[in-house]
Design a protein that fits this description.
With 631 residues, this protein is an alpha/beta fold. The protein contains 22 helices and 16 strands.
């Protein structure tokens, strides 16, 4: 039984990790009363219990085997390593997730390894992170030192070992029982008590982002390592489902097709709060603000997820982030119709641009899946003698935005028209560096990212200065948006709803000028572009056109793991896949502190049915590979 001391120690260290996580993200969580903290930490104990047993399963089996060889001193030293190394990794993951949480708004899970599987610079970024977050490195080192220093390894002379006999068999069975109870999250080990999963964290929370306090990182990584996330929830029968919601679009164009060029700029980490146009003229994007004043943009516009790999399908193919990362999951080879494949039927050439190493972030894979004719990455940039090759590499991720956007502009002047292209910027990404020549001009503000926002805004200014010289400029629709939000500047943008707010702009020289009150989402971009061009063929997209009369004020669906969310004109509803968990009026309750669930049954019912129908259509069509219109 003395060996159990090590489990108590690991449990205490995981508790300290949770305290550090909360303290490091206090600006996001704001004020939480002590009694609610007790509830959150109480729920977290179950997840710590499970994670520690998962991590130490091999060591546990080695230590409780009722055989004499298990008492060999060398054997038990090996068992020690199978305990302290996994638990140390768990401590490290918990501590450093405190730094990642502001970017992801959730605990890191196994999708992290799929997302960055193609990167070749992770070690450099990792070691830089150790220095950037030195205080977390120090905290992790201290906790790991304590774990190793005070690990208890029973000696061969201990009475329990000397009296080796079948009498220790009951202890072995007891340890097995506690192991099973720990990983299941229940002391009742039977068919009526299902093993816990990440969604069980909802039992303890008031807001979706509080689930990260209850959960721990090693549990989330291990629990999602073999996930098959898609299954038909069967909320509605097939005929009823189609009546409530269908992603099938059957356009009714208002005139002849307009073969305009389409240029889509996806800006890395450009949260809406960085733009003065949307925030009382206080911001870091003077050039983009000038475009917002002269194009069609939205007071309330949102991303569907919090990662770059979620934005790509949403923006370019109308496929939202609901449950899993589409092109990193098991259905990533499903056939889709994207803006590239749809416009190809009208004679368009298509190309995707990203200044990182070819294949980075899985973008090359998705561009192929989405039917883009060509992909231009770092390789193509470096092969063009007119540009600076690796001299323009930022040292971590990609070619600097200014230089790569100039390459993008020049390249578009040399490709066939009409064309549809998309370019994903890179500089406004951790570790938030800008070129030396701009360090005096663009200085760090309240967050490290703000200097990068200023730099990229200027890079976009230079991009437009370049493309204005080309004859195709006036016949081009520019779409500018962001993949997701990032470091927040004010608490208003940390709420479950506003943490998804990104700018979305449609700009054509001499085109529509309007700040719309219609709720708008990344998945609405492709349908809106197609309507703008008077596209006339049916297609599948989980979004709505701005010009749609059937959806006057719009709605937005996104996924804040583990909760699904839907926003309408006045209301905001959250749903955990089984039941409604929250209902708010954001216009009157910015910080979503007053849960009005059950007080507006008609509105709640309408929103919940629409949300359920979209989830079901998404899962069902993903499983059936039914994301295109059958010819």
């Amino acid at each position: 039984m003395q060996y159990a001391v090590n489990y108590f120690a690991a449990f205490a260290l995981f508790f300290i990790c949770r305290v550090i996580f909360v303290v490091a993200n206090q600006n996001i969580y704001g004020e939480i009363d002590f009694s609610h903290y007790l509830t959150l930490f109480g729920g977290g104990m179950k997840y710590d219990f499970a994670a520690i047993f998962y991590l130490t399963a091999v060591s546990l089996v080695m230590m409780i085997l009722p055989f004499k060889f298990a008492f060999n001193e060398t054997y038990r030293k090996i068992a020690k390593y199978f305990f302290v190394i996994p638990v140390s990794l768990g401590i490290f993951a918990n501590i450093f997730d405190a730094a990642f949480f502001p970017f992801n708004a959730r605990r890191t899970n196994f999708s992290f390894f799929r997302e960055f599987s193609n990167e070749n610079n992770l070690f450099g970024i990792f070691f830089k992170g150790l220095f950037d977050y030195w205080y977390l490195t120090l905290a992790a080192a201290v906790l790991i030192f304590l774990l190793v220093k005070y690990y208890y390894n029973p000696k061969v002379s201990d009475p329990l070992i000397k009296k080796y006999s079948l009498k220790i068999l009951p202890l072995t069975l007891l340890f097995i029982y506690f192991f099973l109870a720990g990983v299941r999250g229940s002391f009742f080990i039977d068919a009526d008590h299902r093993p816990m999963n990440m969604n069980n964290a909802n039992e303890y929370i008031k807001k979706s982002n509080e689930s990260a306090i209850v959960l721990n990182t090693p549990y989330c990584i291990l629990r999602t390592s073999g996930d098959v996330s898609f299954s038909d929830p069967k909320y509605f029968q097939a005929d009823e489902l189609e009546k409530i919601y269908s992603p099938l679009h059957e356009p009714k164009p208002q005139g002849e097709f307009k073969p305009m060029n389409v240029v889509i700029l996806i800006l890395e980490s450009f949260g809406k709060e960085y733009s003065g146009f949307f925030n009382g003229n206080e911001g870091y994007t003077p050039f983009l603000d000038s475009l917002y004043q002269n194009g069609l943009t939205f007071r309330h516009s949102f991303a569907t997820g919090r990662k770059s790999i979620d934005a790509m399908p949403s923006i370019l193919a109308g496929i939202p982030y609901l449950t899993d990362h589409f092109f990193m999951g098991m259905y990533s080879n499903n056939k889709v119709n994207s803006i590239a494949t749809l416009l190809k039927s009208k004679g368009y050439y298509s190309a995707f641009y990203h200044g990182a190493p070819n294949g980075s972030m899985g973008f090359l894979h998705f561009s192929r899946l989405a039917g883009f004719d060509d992909y231009f990455g770092m390789t193509e940039y470096c092969n063009d003698s007119r540009f600076g090759a690796m001299n323009d590499f930022d040292g971590h991720w990609a070619i600097w935005d200014e230089e790569f956007l100039q390459f993008y502009a020049k390249s578009m002047d040399e490709i066939p028209q009409p064309f549809v292209t998309a370019c994903f910027t890179a500089t406004s990404h951790n570790p938030f560096r800008i070129p030396e020549k701009y360090k005096e001009r663009f200085q760090e503000g309240p967050q490290p990212i703000t200097k990068c926002i200023q730099y990229t805004d200027n890079a976009i200014r230079e991009f437009f200065n370049a493309v204005k010289k080309y004859p195709w400029y006036e016949n081009t629709l520019f779409v500018i948006t962001a993949d997701h939000t990032n470091q927040t500047l004010s608490r208003e943008y940390t709420t479950d709803r506003n943490v998804f707010k990104v700018p979305i702009l449609f700009y054509q020289e001499g085109g529509i000028k309007k700040l719309s009150d219609k709720l708008f989402c990344q998945t609405d971009i492709t349908p809106t572009v197609l309507d703008y061009l008077n596209f006339d063929k049916p297609y599948i997209a989980f979004g709505n056109s701005y010009f749609s009369e059937s959806d006057t004020l719009g709605y937005v669906v996104n996924f804040s793991e583990p909760l699904y969310q839907i926003s309408m004109e006045k209301y905001f509803l959250q749903f955990d896949g089984k039941q409604e968990t929250g209902f708010f009026i954001p216009g009157e309750d910015v910080f979503l502190t007053h849960n009005l669930m059950g007080q507006f049954p008609e509105e709640e019912g309408k929103m919940l049915n629409l949300l359920k129908a979209e989830i079901q259509q998404y899962h069902k069509r993903m499983i059936e590979n039914n994301l295109t219109v059958k010819e």
